[in-house]
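Replying to the earlier thread about multi-chain prediction with a worked example.

Input:
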Amino acid sequence: MKKKILLLFLTLFLLFLAGVFITLRVVYLSAANFDSLLALHKVEIIRQELIINVQTVQANLFTTGTLFGKEMDDIVDNVLKLRVAAQNCGSCHHRPLVAKDINELQDMTNQYSEALSYFITSTADQQRVERLQAIAADIGDTIISKAQQMAFTANENLRKRSLEAAEKVNRTKKILALTILFAFFLSLIIAVYLIRNITKPIFELIQATRRIRAGELGYISKYRGHDEFRELIGSFNDMSSSLKKNNEEILAHLVRNQTILQASTDGFVLFDATGRIFDSNPALCRMVGYSKEELLTKKITDIEVFEAEFDKDDIWKRIKSAGSMIIQMEQKAKNGIMTTVEISVTYTEIEGLGNYFCFVRDISERKKIEQELLKIQKLESIGVLAGGVAHDFNNLLTGIVGYIDLAMMQLDPNEKIYSRLTNAKKASLRAQNLTKQLLTFSRGGEPIKESVAVAGLIEESTCFVLSGSNVKCVYESADGLFTIEADKGQISQVLQNITINAKQAMPEGGTLTIKAENIIVADNDPLPLRQGRYVKITLIDQGPGIEEKNLAKIFDPYFTTKATGNGLGLAICHSIILKHHGHLVVESTVGVGSSFTIYLPALVREDKEEDFSPEIHFMTGGGNRVLVMDDEEHIREVLDAMLSYLGYESGFASDGAEAVEMYEKAIRAGTPYCAVIMDLTIPGGMGGKEAITKLLEIDPSVKAIVSSGYSNDPVMAEYRQYGFSGVVSKPFDTEQLSRILYEMLHNSL
Amino acid sequence: MMPESMRVFLAACRHILCILMFVLVVIGPSASAFDNSGEGLLIGVEPEHNIFEQIERYRILAEYLSKELGINVRLTVMSRYGELLKRFKSRRLDGAFLSSYTAAMAFKQLNLEPVAMAVNLKDNAFSQGYLFTRKDSGITAAKEMQGKSIVFVDPATTEGYLFPLVWLRQNGVKDKERYFSRFSFSGSHASAIFAVLDGKADIGCAKSTVYNRQITKDPTIGAELRIIAESAAVPETTLCLKKDIPGEVKQKLLAILEKMTSTERGRSVLHNIELLRFVKAGDSDFDGIAKMIEIVEKP
Amino acid sequence: MIGVVMTGNTPYYTVMHDAFSKTLNSMLPAGKKVRSIIQKPFPDPIALSNAARKLIAADVDLIVTYGSPATLAVINEDSGIPIIYAGVYDPEAIHAKGPEITGCGYKVHLSSLFRHLRTLKPIATLSVVYSTLEEDSVRQVNELRALTKEQGVGLTQINVKSIRDIKNIDPKVGGDALFVTGSAIVNSWIDEVMAVFKGNRPTVVSIFPDLAEVGFIITLFQSPEEQGEKAAAMVVRVLQGEQPKNIKPELLKNTELVFNLKEARSMGDINPINLIAEATRVIK
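Result:
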C-alpha cells in the first residue's frame, strides 16, 4: 500500500509538474509570441519613424529657398534621427533576407546622409547642387519605397504571426484545459482508489475487533488484499488465534491445577495474614474433618492440626521473611495411630496482600520407606561384600571341584573313596549355589543365560530349601519340557524365594506342589507375553492365602506382612522373571492357599534336553590346542590337568598381554590354538575384555571363552557382543568344560 | 530588445532626472545674469564636408558646455557660406563657429568678436590656401596661366577665393575673367581638387587641410598635383560671440574651453569632436585676412 | 571641296563629324557651299593610306581627319594639302605639327579615370581592350600599364584587330573592371565585345562617351561635338585663306565625367556620392 500510495502520489506530482511545465511553456510561448509581435510592432514603429524622417527631409529638400536655415536644422535633426532609426532596425534579429534588406536600407540611409551632406555643403556650381539634390531625393524616395515595401511585408508577416500566435494561444488554451481536466479526473480516480483501498480493510479490522471484544476469540477475518493491510489483517488473525489458544491454555491450566488440587492426596489450604481461610481441597477436608464451606468460615488457628504450630508467636514472621517453610509434626490420628504430617507453607504477596499457600502431606509412609532404604543400603553393603567373597570363593571352588574331579577320574567308581569324593563334590557344588545366591543378591545385574533343563533346576532349588522342614514338596513335571535359556542362579533364587514364602506360610506343615508344563502363547493371548513357547511353573501352597487388598502390592518392594521381612523377596522375583522376558502372577484364596505361576520363554533352538543326561559325558579334544589365561596359578594348574584329561594340549598365560603374544606366536609357528579360555578380570593386568579385542585383530575367527567367578560384569551376560564365543562361570567341572569346548569347536555355539 | 520593465524603469529614471534638473534650474541660483531669456546660447555652425557627423560632434560639445556653463547651449546649422551672415541676423544667433573668411566678414558687419580657436588633431588651429595645377600641365607661374581655366571653391572662402585673388593680383593679374579662358566655383574644396585632377580646370585652389586630407586618402593625388602658391595661415574654425554677451559669460566659456584638456570628461569630448584643444582667439589672429581683404578691395 | 578621313566608322567620330558639318554649314557665308568626300576606311595603315591617296587624287582643298590613325596616314602622304584634325589623343605626343597641320585634339587623364573607378570598387586586376592597329589606343595602354604598375594593380590586355579576335576573348579575363581605350575598332564593335561578357558583366570604364549605350559605368571624356565644332571653325578659317600654321592647334579642356548611376545600381544598390558629386553628368 505504501508503495502504491507513493506511486500514486508520485504520479500526481509528476502530473502536476507536467501541468506546471505545460502551463509555463504555454505562458512562455505565448509571451514569446507576444514579445515577437510586440517586437514586430516596435520594428514597425521604427520603420514608420524612418519613413517620416525621410519624408520630412524630402519635403524640406524641395522647399528649400532662401530661408533655408531653419529647414537645415530640421534636415540635420531628421537625418540624425533617421540614422538612429536605421541602426535600430538592425539591432534586433532578423531572417537573413530581412537582414539583407535592412542592411541595404542602412547603406542607403548612409548614402542618403552622404548625398545630403554633399548637397548641403556644396555652395557653388548650381548644376552640381541640383544634381546632388536630385540624387538625395532619389535615394530618399528609394528608402521610402523600400521601407514601405518592407513595412508591407512586415505587416503581412505581422498579420500571419498574429494569426499564428492567436491560434497557438487557442491551442495552448485547449491543451491547458485538457491537462487540468485530465489531472482533475486522474486525481479523483486516485483519491477514490486510495479511499476504497484504505477504508475497506480498516472497516474490516474494526468489525474484527468488535467481534473479538464480544468474545469471539479466534475470529479470522476473510479480507483478502494484496498490500500491507493483508499483512496487518494476517497479523490480526494470528493475534486472534493466539489469543484463543492462550486463553484455552490458561483455562486448561486452571482446570489442571484445580484438578491437581482436587485430586491431590495432599491437603491444600490458602489463608491470609489474619489466618482467614480462602480455599481448600477435599484432601484437607478429609484430613481435618471439616467441609470446605465450614473451613471458609474459619481461621487457620481454629483448625486443630495447625493450631499448635500457627499459634506460635513468631511463626508468621518467620514464614514471611523466609518466603517458605516446611514444618513436620507428629499427630495422633482419630484411629489412634501416630502419623507424621509435613506442612509446606509458602508466603506470597498478591496485589499487596499476604497469602499463605499451605500444603499438608501425610508422610508416615515415606518415613517408613526411608527407614527401609537405610536397610537396603546396609544390604547393598553386605551384597558388595558377598560379591567379593563369592568371587574368591568361586575361584577356590573351581580348584576344589577340579581337583575332586581329577581325583575321581583316577579312581574306580566302586571304590569307597570315590563315593566320598562324589559327596564332597556335591557339597562343593552346593557351596557354589550358595555363592551364586550371594552373587544374585549382590548384583541384581543382567542374567547370565544358559541352557537350563527346568525339571532339574526346580528340584535342585527347592529341595535344598525345604530340607529339614515339615513341608512336603510334590513335583509334577510334564514330559518333554522345553529347555529354557536362563540364568540358573537367578531362576533358582526365584524358586527358592517362593518356596521359602510357602514354607513360612505353612508353619504347621503342608504340601507345596510344583508343576512344570509347556505352553504355547498365541498372538491374542491375554497374558502379557509375546507369542511363543513357554515353560509354565506353578507353585501351589496350602497357606492361609493373601488378603485381596495386599494381593496387588505383594510384588512392590518393601511390602511385607511379616514383621521380620524386608519386603524384597517377591520384588526380586518379579524383577528376575521380567528380565528373563517372562511373567510372574499370583493367585490366592484366603483360607485355601496361594499359587505363584512363572512363565519362562523356551529356548528357540530346540535343545536336546533328553540327550543331556546328568551322566558325565566327556567330549574329548583330539589333540587340539587350548590357551588358558588366568592370574590364579591353582586355576591354571587345574585347567591344565582338566584339558590334558580331555585330550587337549594347553598353553597358559597369566595375563592378557601374554596370552595375545602366545596366540600370535602359535599362529606363526603353525600350531595355532583352537580355543582360548580367558579370565575376565586380571588385577593389575590386561583382562579378558581387552585381550579379546587384540585377539580378534590377529585372528577374526578366534574362539574364546570368558570365565569369571564374579558375574556382575555385563561382559558375562552379553559375552557375544564383546567377541566371545562362549561363557563359563567359575567354578566349573570337567564335564562343563568339555561340553562348552566341544560345542564351541563344533560350531554349536 | 530591451525588456518592457527595464524600459519603464529607465523612463521613470528619465522623468525623475528631468524633474530634478528642472528643479535645479528653477530653484538653484542662476548661473548667469545673461540667461534671463531662459533660451541660453544659440550658436551657429558652418557646415563642413560631412555635416551630420559634424553636428553630432558639436552637439557633444554643446552638451558639455551647457553642463559646465550652466547655460543651455544650442546649436543651429548655418547653410550657404555666402548667406551666412544674413542668417545670423535673422536667427538672432549669439555666436557661431566660423571659418576665417566668414569670421572676418562677421567682425566687420555683425559686431562679433573671436573667443576661441579649435586646434585640430595635427596640433594646428590654422589653415592655408593652396593654389595648384596638374604637374603635366606645365604651369608653374601666373604668366603661364593665361588662357587656362581656373576653379575656385566659393566666393566666401579665404582659401578658396580670397587668397587666389590676392595671389593673382600680387602676380599682376587684375582681371581674372579676361586672363583665364574659364573660371568656375566648385562648391567644395575637394571638388576643386578633383576638377583639376580630371582636367575640368587647369588651376585650382583649396584649403590646405582638405588638400592634405585628400592626399592622405589617396597619395596618387599628391603625385599628380603641384602647389604653386600657399597663403598665410588663417584660423580654421573660430568660436565667435556677439560683443553684447556679458564678458563674464565669455570669460567663463573661454575658461571652460581652455580647461577641457585638464578634465577627464573634457578630454573625452575633445576626443569625440576630433580636436586637440581650444585656444584663446584674438583679433590679431585675423590680421592676415584683413590684409588680404584690403588688397582685394583696393581698386 | 574638302576631304574627310575618319578612323573607322566609329560613333565618336561620327558625332564629331556631325557637329563639324553642322558648325561648318552654319559658319559658311550665305550661299556658299562646301562639298565633302568622306572616307571611313577600316583603320589599318593600308586602307587609311588608300583613303588619303583617294582624297589627294580628288584634289580636295583640305583634308579633315578624325582620330590619330587617319591623321597620321594623311600626314604620311605629305601632299601639302592643309590638314585639320580632330579627335586626336594627345596630338603633341604624335608630333602632329607642320605648316599645313592644325586641329583640335583631346587628352583624358587616365589616372583620374582610374581613381574614380577605384572609388566605386576595389580593383585588383584591370582588363584593357585596345587595338594594336591604332597608335593612340596603344599609347593609352602603355600609359595605363605604367599607372597600374605604379599602383600594384594587375593588367590584362585584350587586343582586338578583327572581329575574330573578339570571339576569341576569354570571358573570364574581364578582371575587376574593363577599360575600353579610345580605339575605333573596339568602339565600332563594342556591342560584340560586351556580348562576350554576357552573364558576367564587367564594370566598364572608357575615355569615349557611351554613345552606343552599352553600359559604361564611368566615362571621362572630352566632347566630340566640341572637337567637331572647333575643327569646323578652323576649316572655315583655312577656307577663308588663313594658313593652318597660323591657326593654333587646340587641346580640349572641358573634360566630362559621366557616371552611369543606372548601371551602377543594376550591379548593386550603390550610390557613390563622391562620384555623383564630381560627375558632370549622372545617368539615372
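The first strand of chain C starts at residue 2 and ends at 6.

Feel free to reuse this layout for your own posts.
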